[in-house]
Amino acid sequence: MESETMLCTTDQCVEQEPQYTHIDRNEFSQRRHKKQEEEEILICECKCDEKDLESACGERCLNVLTSTQCTPGYCPCGVYCKNQNSDMVKEERPQITRRATRSSALAKSVVEETDTSSQHPNDASASSDIIKEESPQISRRTTRSSVLAKCSNNVVEETDANSQQQPTLDDLVIGEGESFSFDDLVSSFPGKESQIKELVHLLGPQNSPMLPIFIYGGSSTGKTSIVLQTFRHLKRPFVYSSCLTCYNPRIMFESILNQLFLHRKKAENGYSSAKRCERPSDFVNFLREALVSIIGNPQGQKSGLSSKRSGKANGNMIYLIFDNLERVKGWDKGSTVLSLLFNLYDTLKMPEVGLIFISNTSPDTYDSNMGYVEPNPLYLPDYTDDDLGQILMRHQANKKLYTSFLSVVLRPFSRITRRVDELSSAFSLLFRKYCEPITDLGVFPNEEMKRKLFSQFQPHIAPALNEIFKVSTQPSTEVEARERKPKVSTRKSRGYEVADQLDFHMSTSAKYLLISAFLASRNPATLDASLFDSTGGSNNRKRKRKVSEKSMEQKETAEQELLIKGPGTFPMERLLAIFQCITSVAEDPLDDEEQAQDGLGIQDGHCGLMSDVLLQLTSLCGANFIVKGGSCPLEGSTRYRSTVSEDMALQVARSIKFPLSKYLYRR
Amino acid sequence: MGRESPAEKALILLRTRLCDPNFIFRPLCESSDSNYSKLKFLVSSSITEACNNSILLLGPRGSGKIAVLDLVISDLLQEYPDTITVIRLSGLLHSDENCALKEISRQLCTEHQLLFSKMASFDENSQFLIAMLRECGLAHKTIIFVLDEFDLFALGKQRLLYNLLDALQSVTSQAVVIGVRCGSAFGKRVISRFSNRKLLFLPPSKEDIQRLLEHILLLPTDSGLPTDYVVEFNTKLQNILADERFEEIINTYLNIDSTIKDFLRYLFRSVSNMDLQSGMLLLENFKTALSNIQRHPKMECIKDCSILELYILVCMKRLEVKEHNSYNFTTVMKEYKSVHDSFQTSDYYAKNVCLRAFEHLLQRGLIEFIDNRGQNQSVEYRPVKLLISFHQLHQGLKSYRSCPAILQKIMDREK
Amino acid sequence: MAPPSSASSGEDSSTPDTTQSQLQHSFLLHKASDKLISSGKARRRRRSIDLSPTKTDDDDKKQSDDERWLRMEAFQLVWSRIESTINHVLRNINARVFDHIRRWVWDSFNAIKPLATISPGPFPLVSQVTCTQLFTGLLLTNNMEFVDDISTFQELGLCLKSHGCHVANLSSFDFSSKNGIAGCLTSLLRQFLMSTFDAADMSILASWYSRQGNYGSPVVVIIDDMERCCGAVLSDFILMLSEWVVKIPVILIMGVATTLDAPRKILSSNVLQKLCPCNFKLGSPAERMDAVVEAALVRQCSGFAVGHKVAVFLRNYFLNQDGTLTSFVRALKIACVQHFSTEPLSFLLGWLLVKEDSKGVQSEKAVKLASELLSLARNQIAEQTEVTIVHSLTELTKLQKLWSTVVLCLYEAGKCNKTRLIDLFCEALDPDTYNLLASDGLTGTGKGFVQSLSSDHCMLEQNLSYRKGRLICQLLGRVRDLPAALLCRLLNGWKNLTVDVPEIHDKVKELQSIVKLDEGSCKPDLKEISRRHTSRSPLKIGQSQSINEKAAILMDCMVRDFMKPIECTAFHEIVCYRNVENLQSALIGDSRKMIQVDLLEFHKTLQCSCCRRSGNIPLPSMPDTSIMYTLAQEHGDLINLHDWFQSFKTIVIQYSRKGTSKLKKSPLKKRKERNESENKSEASIQARFCRAITELQITGLIRMPSKKRRDCVQRVAFGL
């Protein structure tokens, strides 16, 4: 209920100030929500019969009496359990539909109610035998090719169709209905023919078991697309799970199981997954169950099953594809998950299962403390230059023009990177620039035209080579392009020249604090006493010179130190001390600056500078100018480190007329 | 499904064989001194004498311990129809006692058609286990515990092992515990409880390999395949097996990794290369399989690198040669600049581009951070180390298509 | 004055406390609310003081409290006006950028849509490489401080929502490394699906999006402050989104506080690769500041005004302390509160506003009250009748209007080269300048004005020549050598500004006609004439004055005749708040410094006779904590606990010695007394020492011993 009111408010409350956010459960700031272990789930012993649903978890229910909520999927009453959080109850969940006529909306909701009632056995409490009855049943429906023709208006009814009819094994097959020949496959991946052949060989003919495959190669060499398109070509059922999207074991297990149980998360089942599965052991059990239920029991009557299966999904092999496998190394207890996956084939002992691992690091980087039988390696090398040319040439309107463009840019850029995505995004901007002089883009460039274009285009190449992250500005905001121009230039060649003015606002005290942090990170702490004397920076120039002479011999070591360690860390006390010295020194520039306005500003201006330094410090930390390092082992106090580049610091100093270079301990 | 050509059928048959351990290991089991017969003798004797027993199967990974064990158990199940209950645990899945016991009782329940409740606590489960052990002992039924990845059970507090082995001390119970492990190091406390019966699994001998090859690759005449095809196939295959080039291919492979599973993997690779038109296995299949299955990942990575990345690698190598004990991106950049200044190279790029190349190298696994705890430190300053040797880099540069001459020169000079 | 203070603190908690609850960790020692309370206390004291004469008899009593009621009402009236104006201005500033963003969002959505496939199963089937890129808007809030922009992002979210996008507002707290990627996914799903999942997953979002009614409109994810996010989590999030972008057309909008390099700093290159960025700029805080000042203070949305010193203080506070608009508004509010609480006549301001609204409810009562108060406050004889008050008040408002018009004209003149309005404002409020001019008899009110244009007269420069860098003089000079086109624009602007000030309006019109006339004649010589005139000293000005000259003179006359600072007008204390010290103490309560000062010069507060004479020699009669702290002054930043205790003990003991030596007893008895009092006092002294140290630690002046140096405490106190 309240969700509906919620939506309405958000829809109209554009003018009204306060915006309410709907909180479903308490968010504890100090401790996190504890995940419910399977042991701790309380099961009531209610029995409910279909006749009177009132019998399900009523007042007599143990959990109701102990005022705990039944865990969905564990309560014996299954979906009829009434002892549920109000927003978990599906039926009375309001459907907000943006429709023109409200009659159709009504129809929609009615439909949904009916199919929720029909969905019940398929819900979280689904048991394998039910699935086994459902999966073979043939459901004729509109050919999916119409769907794959991606026009967005029939998408809606498509989703309706999905929500209504029973999903079958064919959902594990992509692109059936259309024919996708081997030649199409090869032609869509230039320079990868041999690898694709190899892959097809390894997958073998229909119904032929296979040992696990390990596909690896640099990023954006088309590993995932090749595998997926190959399956699209072979039309075999497979289960895909990317370890990037499934960011922890539980989600990976559950997504695999969902696909195998032909279960879709949708509003009707409260976006819950088919099985709740956290442990590897449960995963293996469920996986066996699911595979058995799909393939039919490993011995015998394969043929009968596959003949029953409407001929769309070929063969009775099920392939499990694990993508982005290298991400698993980053998980906690990732090594055990890896060894589980690598040994999955031997653990399952089901020849109908094919495992495919996709990773962008070679197999020798997966060293687990306990070994595994290595899967079959299949290597996808990076693209050569002419492959790159072909790939970039696809989806181009005017191929001639683009070839002339590529002949200019491709070689220099491929010296830097050979990744398709980086190159294509870099070129898409450059090509626009290249075409600027041309009026109609359909023109076939002749030699002298190419020459002219090149001569105009030449100056843009070098900056583009040295740029990895080009931020384009909205054409509609070109009104203030005038004052944006200088920044653009500095952005392009960052690291070469210094931006002339600071293009964001910082309060003066924050600037001083930033500078002092920079000094504290940059200078060795031993020199503070000689660099700053609290009386003021009157005579510390010659002092400094003396110091630098004294520390002549430390120079190289110190330099190495700096390069290795980077900016040093410092406790807050040192920062405050330096800050005080700087501000006391900077009296005079501060003064006449204030003086220009009038005499009065100084003292409150200055005593203000000292006032809420800690506040400024936190906001500097927030802006990533200062990072709060881990507390150093020797003393308990937290230490800070400034990450400001030197030109940035100089820029800030210039903006407040502070002689920074005087205090820099030059090496 | 009658539409497949005989070649395809044959291919499917071969692949099915290769993926079926029972089929593979059957021939290795005839001889009386094989592990199979020893193991079978041990288990069956403990069944007949109705006593407790514990056996340890040792051997490198992939030497077919589990497969042989399965053979034994399946045969025993046929010999003694309903006196054996097999409980299979794997250290990978059940290393923590709690879920191990849960799993045990689950399997017991399914075995004896009892109702298993997910919610039973640890103690209930252990009680249940003890009770079951006693019952089975009284009923003269043997429970065989198979503990795969045994060393993972031996980690930690080993409560499970203690429970089991203590239960076995009692005379009433009647169970066999078979531990399967690949490592060689032993936890002493476990061994003290474990009986010293160990079976060692060795890599296959030459004859075994030969037997395997014929056993696997030769097509049966009785299957649905046309006989003339089968005859032709087998003769061709015999010729290949007799060929000494084939001999040395196999030997080169077996020198690398020698366990049976690896060998099967190799055979699978070569079989899957079989040409479906001719439908015959050729010597080339085995050659290509060899080249495909032995990869040199680092060299491939170097081949994939862009020229800028090569520069960075060379700079790091130079730093290593100069005995800089540790270096990070900034030092590498300094080196890069010095190289540029001394040789006037054509490609000298801005810092952020180099940083991107640096990150590419990290992703390729050619370099890695020395410590993975310096999270708050930015990438430029975290110390890194090269994962390739000087020789590898040198070879890589040599085999690189269009490697700049300067890099070659630098490397040669450093040598 | 309890009601206004409480009310104000309530309102205050409504506006900035929303931000504070979000940023509480970074607002550890923020002082807004409690300072308000304290100033409320101070107010009460002062109030009781300045109404002491009237406090005698009961009718004055009732009069005083209905006067209090009047003031309270006046405050609420005025402040509500100011606040609404400020909000309005800020919203208008953002409107244009929001519009751009909206257009961009829909364009990029139309760019994505054709690529979006409805492939079954939870995996994207990517047709080409580039479509895994994520359209990303980088919204530059050119302010390192983040406080001002929270509401901005909320409004952006609402604006997009109202144009039919699905919007989720994430902040850096969702990207903490503690909760990891699960945390931000959970909050994302909560905002879209309005329910929480323990296993948050993108596939849920996908199936939600494919539902009817959700499909076909962009999904916008707004991340308020990108710099504060944990880099690893943010990059995982971006990778995940870019993997799903073909199924869920997500469009990312990230607020960048500092520079465009910020993403490059926290994200690695392969993540940057996934972004297809495009940047937008919010109005810089300086611009917003000027807009707010113009709307709230110059244009006199409510009669409330601030004095020169206060203006300067506000400006410096904005420039030197945290440069946030929020704090500026807070400062303004405090000023307003204090004005209405301290200034006895301030309620008349409320009455003025009411009178403007022409519903004189209790005006006569107010006026009567005012007259009595006047007769009380400045003890004058009673020809201060209502008439004079009303008259002078209207006069005051008129002058104010003139003043603001002139200031706006100057601002208009300064616009072409970015004169900051707030500086101009501070200078225009300066009473000394005006008094100086007045002393030279150079200021006329309106009547000298007419012939002052034609007749040659000396410009301000001579009078003000000794003052360097006056903004107004710079402006004059600038107007002199203004190119003709800009000059025309300037005159137009002036004409629009001075519609309701006839005198100036006519002059401007006149000038414009001359310009029109000169349009025919050659412009270049006009230019060079003007240049010649600027080069020459402007003393002898013939009829051949260039337009620029005329304009300059016009401006000059405006300044001297109509720009009368509020503090120079009669009755200005009704509308004008001038008390800088209170405001400053209310805003910059330097807590650490205050604590140390109180510890060292405690007798100022204690007012005790015993330890006044001591300079800073610790005396036993001092409180322990201050003894300890004075002792600590001798040490460096590391204090050895033992020495500290010894010196503390010696000081305290001599007191107990004195105490014991008073009473006459037999020596041995005395000795027994002594040493048992010794070891009694020993324990008590240790106890006092420990308590004092704990207090010092609690006040944050020292830090407890670290593992390395167990015997020492560390001084954390600076700023004295």
Alpha-carbon Rg of chain C, integer: 34 Å
- CATH superfamily placement of the largest domain in chain A: P-loop containing nucleotide triphosphate hydrolases
CATH superfamily of the domain at 118-283 in chain C: P-loop containing nucleotide triphosphate hydrolases
Provide the low-confidence segments of chain C as ranges.
1-56, 379-384, 444-458, 464-468, 521-544, 659-665
Biased composition (Low complexity) (chain C): 1-13
GO biological process, one term (chain C): DNA replication initiation
Family (chain C): Belongs to the ORC3 family.
Protein name (chain C): Putative origin recognition complex, subunit 3
List the helices and strands and how they pair.
The complex is a heterotrimer of chains A (667), B (415) and C (720).
Chain A: H1 2-12, H2 62-65, H3 102-119, H4 128-134, H5 145-148, H6 153-164, H7 182-187, H8 193-203, E1 213-216, H9 223-234, E2 238-242, H10 249-260, H11 280-295, H12 302-308, E3 318-323, H13 334-342, H14 344-348, E4 353-359, E5 376-379, H15 385-393, H16 399-416, H17 420-435, H18 447-465, E6 472-473, H19 481-492, H20 508-522, H21 528-531, H22 540-550, H23 555-565, E7 569-571, H24 572-585, H25 587-597, H26 601-611, H27 613-622, E8 626-628, E9 639-642, H28 646-655, H29 660-663
Parallel strand pairs in A: 1-4, 1-5, 2-3, 3-4
Antiparallel strand pairs in A: 7-9, 8-9
Helix pairs in contact in A: 4-11, 10-11, 15-16, 16-17, 16-18, 17-18, 20-24, 20-27, 20-28, 25-26
Chain B: H1 6-18, H2 21-25, H3 35-48, E1 53-58, H4 65-79, E2 84-90, H5 91-94, H6 97-111, H7 122-138, E3 142-148, H8 150-153, H9 159-169, E4 175-181, H10 188-193, E5 197-200, H11 206-217, H12 227-242, H13 244-256, H14 260-272, H15 283-293, H16 297-304, H17 307-321, H18 329-343, H19 351-364, E6 367-369, E7 384-386, H20 390-399, H21 405-414
Parallel strand pairs in B: 1-4, 1-5, 2-3, 3-4
Antiparallel strand pairs in B: 6-7
Chain C: H1 2-22, H2 32-50, H3 58-112, E1 134-140, H4 149-162, E2 166-170, H5 180-193, H6 202-209, E3 219-223, H7 231-244, E4 250-256, H8 262-266, H9 269-272, E5 275-281, H10 285-298, E6 305-306, H11 308-320, H12 325-342, H13 347-356, H14 363-377, H15 386-415, H16 421-428, H17 431-439, H18 449-454, H19 460-464, H20 471-480, H21 484-497, H22 502-520, H23 523-535, H24 547-562, H25 572-575, E7 576-577, H26 580-587, H27 591-600, H28 603-606, H29 624-634, E8 638-640, H30 641-662, H31 667-698, E9 702-703, E10 712-715
Parallel strand pairs in C: 1-4, 1-5, 2-3, 3-4, 6-7
Antiparallel strand pairs in C: 8-10, 9-10
GO biological process, one term (chain C): lateral root development
Protein name (chain C): Putative origin recognition complex, subunit 3
GO molecular function, one term (chain C): DNA replication origin binding
